[in-house]
Design brief:
Layout lengths: L1 E6 L8 H16 L5 E6 L18 E6 L4 H12 L4 E4 L5 H8 L6 E6 L10 H9 L2 E4 L2 H10 L8 E3 L25 E5 L11 H14 L4 E5 L5 H10 L6 E5 L3 H10 L2 E4 L8 H7 L5 E4 L13 E4 L4 H13 L4 H9 L3 H12 L1
Helix pairs in contact: 1-12, 2-3, 3-4, 6-10
C-alpha cells in the first residue's frame, strides 16, 4: 500500500494540527509494510528538511516535500504523487477538494480526511460537501467532532465517520520521574500553554487572568505562568496590570521542548478553559506529569478531562474558574491516576486505531 499524506504544516509552526500531523506521519510509516511507501506533502513548510523529520519517519518514507506556501506547486505535486498512491490521508478539510481532484487521475485511490475541530464545526460549501461524500472515511479526533460532522452533513453515513483520538508525542512528552514536589497550599503554580493570538481569544487566557485576584484571596502567593506568544499578548498584559496582579502573572513566551517539560514538571495545575478545543493535546501532555487539568465544558475537552484527573467549568465563568483552581490546589488529584489516564492515549494505541480505520 502506497500512502500520500497531505498536511498544511508539520514543522513550520507548533500548533495542534501541525503536532498531530507529525504523529500521523510517524504512525503511517510504522503501519506501512516492507514493500510499502509513504510520501509526505506539506503546503506551508519550507523545502529544506527539518532536523526533527527523522524522529517521525523510517525507511518507508519516500518523498517529503515542503511547498513554502506555493499553492500551485502544492496542487501540482498532489496530482503527481497521487498517481502512485493507493491511499491519500488529507490533514485538513481545506485540502480535501484537491485530493478529490487528484482522484480524477487515479480513480482507485481511497481518500481519508482527518477532522480536527473548529475547521469542520460549521456549515459546508457545495464543493466541501461533494468532497466529504467522496471520502472513504472521516477520521474524527473526538466524538464531539464526529457529531458536528454529522450535524452539518447529515447525508453522510455515520459508519464512515470514525473516532481516532489524538495521541501524545513520545518525543515531547517524556516525563521526568524526579519532578519537584509542589506545595499546593502555600503557593499553587498554575500553567497554561496557548497561542496568544487575537483570533484565538476563545482559549480563555483572559479568563484565567481575571480569575487570579479571586484565587489570591485564598492563596496570596499563587502564580499563573503563561507559555506562548502572539499579537494578543499586549492586551493580556494590560489586563493583568489593570487588575493589579502583575506579580501573579508571568508571560514566558515560546519555550523549547526541554524548557516546556520543566514547566509541566514544576506546575501544580494545568489550566486552559477554552471554548473550542477539538481535543486538547496540552491536557494530556500535562497529565503525563501527573498534573490535574482545568478545562471548559465545551468542544472535545470533556472527552479528555473527567473528575478523577481535573475539573470542568462553564466557559467564561470567572468565579467558577477561580473556585475550580482553588479546589484543585486544596484537593490535588492522585498523580498515578492522572498519568494512567494520559497513558491510555499513548502513541502505540493511536497507531493501532489508525491501522484499523484504514482497513
Amino acid at each position: 500500500m502506497n500512502i500520500l499524506l497531505i498536511s498544511p504544516e508539520l514543522f513550520l509552526a507548533d500548533g495542534g494540527i501541525a503536532r498531530i500531523m507529525r504523529l500521523y506521519l510517524k504512525a503511517l510509516c510504522e503501519i506501512a509494510g516492507p514493500n510499502d511507501r509513504v510520501d509526505s506533502l506539506v503546503l506551508n513548510d519550507e523545502p529544506t528538511l527539518d532536523p526533527r523529520l527523522p524522529r517521525y519517519t523510517n525507511s518507508r518514507l519516500g518523498e517529503h516535500l515542503g511547498c513554502a506556501r506555493k499553492k500551485f506547486r502544492f496542487i501540482r505535486e498532489i496530482i503527481r504523487l497521487d498517481r502512485r498512491a493507493d491511499v491519500i490521508v488529507c490533514g485538513h478539510l481545506h485540502h480535501l477538494a484537491l485530493a478529490r481532484l487528484a482522484k480524477g487521475f487515479n480513480p482507485k485511490v481511497k481518500i481519508y480526511l482527518v477532522a480536527h475541530g473548529i475547521e469542520i464545526w460549521r456549515p459546508y460549501s457545495r464543493l466541501e460537501r461533494g468532497a466529504l461524500r467522496n471520502a472513504e472515511k472521516i477520521l474524527a479526533i473526538s466524538e464531539y467532532t464526529r457529531r458536528q460532522v454529522l450535524r452539518f452533513a447529515p447525508e453522510l453515513s455515520p459508519s464512515r465517520i470514525v473516532v481516532v483520538p489524538n495521541t501524545l508525542d513520545p518525543f515531547i512528552s517524556q516525563r521526568d520521574s524526579a519532578a519537584p514536589a509542589a506545595n499546593h497550599f502555600a503557593h499553587p503554580r498554575i500553567l497554561t500553554v496557548s497561542r496568544l493570538s487575537s483570533t484565538d481569544t476563545y482559549k480563555g487566557i483572559d479568563i484565567l487572568i481575571e480569575a487570579m485576584p479571586l484565587v489570591r484571596r485564598e492563596f496570596p502567593f499563587a502564580q499563573l505562568r503563561i507559555v506562548g506568544r502572539g499579537d494578543d499578548q499586549p492586551r493580556l498584559q494590560a489586563l493583568a496590570a489593570r487588575l493589579q496582579i502583575g506579580s501573579a502573572v508571568e508571560f514566558l513566551g515560546a519555550l523549547s521542548d526541554e524548557a516546556l517539560r520543566e514547566e509541566y514538571a514544576a506546575c501544580d495545575i494545568f489550566a486552559l478553559p477554552s471554548r473550542r478545543e477539538g481535543f486538547g493535546l496540552v491536557y494530556l501532555e500535562a497529565m503525563t506529569y501527573g498534573k490535574p487539568c482545568l478545562g471548559a465544558r465545551a468542544g472535545g475537552t470533556p472527552e479528555v478531562i473527567h473528575e478523577s484527573v481535573g475539573l470542568l467549568v462553564d466557559y467564561g465563568n470567572v468565579p467558577d474558574t477561580a473556585a475550580a483552581i482553588s479546589d484543585l490546589a486544596r484537593q490535588p488529584r492522585n498523580s498515578d491516576v492522572v498519568r494512567a489516564h494520559a497513558d491510555s492515549f499513548a502513541f502505540p494505541a493511536f497507531t493501532e486505531r489508525l491501522r484499523a480505520a484504514l482497513n
